[in-house]
Amino acid sequence: MTRIEESRNSQLRENETREETEYVFEEPNATHIPRGVEERFNQQDMSLGWLRILLNGQDDYREIGKKQSQGWEFVTPEEVPEMGSTSVVREEGRYAGVVCRGDIALGKIPTVKLEAKRKHYRDKANEMLDAVNAQLILLLDVFYIHPINYKSCE
After folding, report:
1. What is residue 75's predicted lDDT score, i.e. its pLDDT?
2. Verdict on whether the full-model pTM lies above 0.85
3. Which residue range(s) make up the domain with 62?
């Protein structure tokens, strides 16, 4: 009888272990860059990002030209061999030798340039918010200085 009890106890332990294991489903993310790749580029003071190369099935020259003038460069498959199984390398055309996923390509930029760009647009947004807030304050001052008398409109 002890053998049966032991096998029952081990089955119960296995069932409890299986029940304790929790699985979390995450939707696939086409723009995911492995952490090791990002860390390696960060050590070189480079930031990674996805650049749109196609728009409605056509080369997006304007977007790529803008990104390249900001300092972005395409990443080659030799720089990210661990992404070979999840990405495609274009073999011909303007983007030959570029790591792609659909209509986007992996790019790199010096982190200093990216931070300068972010600061520029953050400052610009703050200036606009300050201007809007100043206008709102003026409107509130006018409203409270000269309240509308609704009874006189009757």
Report:
1. 93
2. no
3. 35-110
